[in-house]
């Protein structure tokens, strides 16, 4: 009998402990952030985290969503598809409603099916590769535009700038290759511009003189490099050192102030790139207020538009939860696909189409001036 | 023809850096039969230390660029050597008598530790060396453009390699290193301080690796905490190509790898550059499994 009462007491304690755990988590909505905290794109990921932490803090200070606090769970995708798949699996076991991220298209692609099977809303912030939204995944969205839109704007810019022969260089990542091939397809339909060179470099190296020497041999009017800013910076610098004076055009992955630091202002001058507007050029009051708050908290404004786009992903998710008063992924997905119209995001108005792509014109053309500043072309 | 020579020169400049890092791999392997996977990260540390010393003391403004670079070379080599000694004490010496696999795992762990330590200390973003540290003069020989800095880097690489070769071949200490490489027990029996030799190897190898990091910083300007991985991999390949454990082999392997990469990207495909380089490696290893100069298996280093 005595033993029996011990067991009862023990069970009672167990119930008490677990009960309190359950009741303390019941008031929370968990949102995941999967971003590159380490690895090649760690600077992007760390800024994504700063943006989301700021927004979560703000939302919770205003009483949360429908009376529930938001809890952010951050997982590192390591800028690497394999690490990302593990991160995604860890996140879906933690009962998150949605996940924001991630930056690189090849990294996002490795995680799409994991979130889809777990019925978790995924809102990518920097993955612009076309095929990500061509798979018919119901719970996948992105706040950044697609590469075919980007290629269209880039091709238009190439024609407007009056170039007739063009070299296209990518870096074999899902994003850069997709953008390069789309631009190639558009240019081949056009008689005024001829492609004289099409190849890929290996990202992460330091010496691109061999590639530049070969490019120079093809003698193009301009070079369209679709890869990321570290390589773009080195290409510009080494091109300048070679004494080769050819204009370079970049895709939106070259949009980072570090580009000028790497290349040096004199080598970066005259570089064109196509991108969603920089944080500083964001229109609208929402953006201004946000940038001020960010600068106040972290001492400097955000460097990358993609971290701001991650913030937009978070804000539309919160909006969806708030309006539908639900955390059911089907309800939320339906809301985002069909009912969310012209949400005032930090990066402009946000609506999604049936594929989960963001609707509307986002891309602009920038030019780097002699001081190394990025100037929005009208 | 001009383009071929230009590409050849481009390749030599990269190859010199590979060779310098490869020396560190090959020396450690020669004496300990251990692939020091943390070597690439010592290279990264060299690059970051160089930047810190250069910018925080304003060296270039105080003593002029030439002296500043010389001072930097000495300081970076010294600091990285100290880190090399600590690495050997902490990560490798306790495993000296364990199976070789344990030491390799320890090396990988040390590599991850260093990489993340650099990220935590310096941040994940790119760091940039001051522009125009050395005058940007390019020589123009028959249409081949060669920046002066690259010639300087190549000359430094060659001096270091030849110096090391002579040191190993002609001095008593060098003989002791060679003896320890052949048979540690026998070397101990004839009165050689094997622990001392190993410490010395972990001074020379990391110092050269750190120097390579500094030169990459000065040459290309942009450094990142992950850069050690790709350079380490290439240098490791170069060491195997030349015959691991063999010092002239590491030099030759590095230069060949650099030139093959440059010519491969020029005449076949840029995207397949690494594949071409590794195909050459496989071909050479099929014909000569010990690597190009790796003949005397008994006498390494």
From TrEMBL, chain A:
InterPro entries: Leu-bd, Leu_Ile_Val-bd, Peripla_BP_I. GO terms for biological process: amino acid transport. Gene3D superfamilies: 3.40.50.2300. This is Branched-chain amino acid ABC transporter substrate-binding protein. It comes from the Bacteria. Keywords: Amino-acid transport, Signal, Transport. Belongs to the leucine-binding protein family. The keyword Signal applies. Residues 28-372 form the Leucine-binding protein domain. The keyword Signal applies. It comes from Thermodesulforhabdus norvegica. The lineage of its organism: Bacteria, Pseudomonadati, Thermodesulfobacteriota, Syntrophobacteria, Syntrophobacterales.
């Amino acid at each position: 009998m005595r033993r029996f009462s011990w067991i009862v007491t023990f069970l009672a304690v167990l119930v008490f402990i677990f009960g309190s755990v359950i009741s303390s988590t019941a008031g929370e909505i968990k949102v995941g952030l999967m971003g590159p905290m380490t690895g090649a794109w760690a600077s992007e990921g760390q800024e994504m985290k700063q943006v989301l932490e700021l927004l979560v803090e703000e939302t919770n200070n205003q009483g949360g969503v429908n009376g529930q606090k938001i809890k952010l769970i951050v997982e590192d995708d390591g800028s690497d598809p394999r690490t990302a798949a593990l991160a995604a699996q860890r996140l879906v076991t933690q009962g998150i409603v949605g996940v924001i991220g991630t930056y690189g298209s090849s990294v996002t692609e490795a995680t799409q099916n994991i979130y889809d099977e777990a019925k978790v809303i995924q809102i990518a912030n920097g993955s612009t590769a076309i095929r990500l939204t061509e798979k018919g995944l119901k719970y996948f969205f992105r706040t950044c535009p697609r590469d075919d839109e980007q290629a269209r704007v880039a091709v238009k810019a190439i024609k407007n700038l009056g170039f007739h022969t063009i070299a296209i260089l990518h870096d074999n990542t899902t994003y850069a290759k997709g953008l390069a091939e789309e631009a190639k397809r558009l240019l081949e339909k056009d008689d005024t511009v001829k492609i004289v060179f099409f190849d890929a470099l290996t990202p992460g190296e330091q010496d691109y003189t061999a590639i530049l020497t070969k490019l120079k041999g093809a003698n193009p009017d301009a070079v369209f490099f679709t890869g990321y800013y570290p390589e773009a910076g080195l290409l510009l610098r080494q091109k300048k050192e070679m004494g080769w004076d050819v204009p370079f055009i970049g895709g939106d992955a070259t949009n980072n102030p570090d580009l000028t630091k790497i290349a040096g202002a004199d080598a970066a001058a005259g570089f064109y790139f196509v991108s969603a507007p920089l944080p500083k050029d964001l229109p609208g009051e929402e953006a201004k207020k946000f940038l001020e708050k960010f600068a106040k908290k972290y001492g400097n404004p955000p460097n990358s538009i993609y971290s701001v786009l991650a913030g937009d992903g978070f804000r539309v998710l919160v909006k969806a939860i708030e309006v539908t008063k639900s955390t059911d992924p089907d309800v939320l997905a339906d809301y985002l696909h069909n009912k969310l119209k012209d949400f005032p995001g930090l990066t402009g108005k946000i609506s999604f189409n049936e594929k989960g792509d963001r609707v509307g014109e986002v891309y602009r053309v920038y030019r780097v001036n002699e001081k190394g500043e990025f100037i929005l072309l009208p | 023809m001009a383009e071929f020579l230009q590409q050849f020169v481009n390749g030599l400049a990269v190859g010199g850096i590979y060779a310098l890092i490869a020396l560190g791999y090959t020396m450690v392997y020669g004496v300990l039969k251990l692939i020091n996977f943390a070597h690439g990260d010592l290279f990264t540390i060299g690059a970051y230390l160089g930047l810190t010393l250069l910018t925080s003391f304003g060296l270039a403004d105080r003593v002029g660029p030439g002296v500043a670079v010389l001072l930097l070379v000495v300081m970076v080599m010294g600091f990285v050597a100290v880190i090399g000694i600590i690495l050997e004490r902490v990560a490798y010496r306790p495993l000296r008598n364990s199976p070789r696999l344990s030491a390799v795992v320890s090396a990988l762990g040390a590599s991850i530790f260093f990489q993340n330590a650099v990220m935590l200390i310096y941040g994940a973003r790119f760091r940039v060396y001051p522009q125009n540290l050395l005058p940007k003069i390019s020589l123009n020989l028959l249409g081949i453009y060669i920046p002066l800095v690259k010639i300087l880097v190549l000359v430094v690489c060659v001096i270091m390699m030849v110096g090391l070769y002579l040191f190993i071949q002609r001095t008593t200490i060098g003989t002791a290193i060679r003896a320890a490489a052949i048979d540690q027990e026998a070397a101990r029996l004839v009165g050689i301080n094997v622990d001392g030799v190993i410490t010395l190897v972990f001074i020379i190898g990391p110092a050269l690796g750190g120097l390579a990091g500094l030169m990459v910083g000065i040459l290309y300007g942009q450094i990142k905490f992950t850069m050690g991985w790709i350079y380490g991999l290439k240098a490791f390949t170069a060491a195997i190509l030349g015959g691991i454990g063999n010092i002239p082999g590491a030099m030759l392997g590095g230069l060949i790898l650099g030139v093959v990469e440059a010519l491969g990207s020029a005449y076949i495909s840029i995207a397949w550059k690494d594949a071409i380089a590794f195909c050459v490696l496989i071909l050479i290893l099929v014909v000569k499994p010990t690597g190009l100069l790796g003949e005397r298996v008994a006498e390494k280093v």
